[in-house]
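Batch manifest, entry 17 of 40.
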Amino acid sequence: MLGGDVVAVWEVALSDGVYRIEFAHGTTTGKRVVYVNGKEVVRKDWMFKLVGKESFTVGGAGTKATINIEAISGFAYEYSLDVGGKSLQKFIDNRAKTTKTWLLSVDGEDCRVVLEKDTMDVWCNGQKMETTGEFVDDGTETHFSLGEHDCCIKASSGGKKKKNGIDHHLLLDGQNVSPQ
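Output type: structure tokens
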């Protein structure tokens, strides 16, 4: 059960899921507790130094995260989260460039499909999928299955302008799925 000293909450989307990070800071007791998805991962009691950093890992790949605690005036504190060595906002911006996410329902089950563009790894609901890639006339196709359904992520040039980059489309049984 989370204590009454929770002072900051963040959500971090990784390839294997969305993680809720909560930080409890007892400024009178010196307590610091970090929870990831409700599970306690760091606990320090009776810390005399109320400012500083708390580091821990998040997700199956052990992504490093650090909570920064800074005094802003008197007994007022500011809390920030770094993920993968970047501020949370820079991490989110980078993930937006290096991943593509689709939310869909398959046979009544909600699915979160994530493509890691740099490795072409595909994740669904926290599980890395077995994929088969192939080159086609207009780009590449990465095939995998969700239950009894055939899926394909098509990667093709965004057009004649280089700044358009590569477009990625998820097809479920041949039908286009809108991204998140």
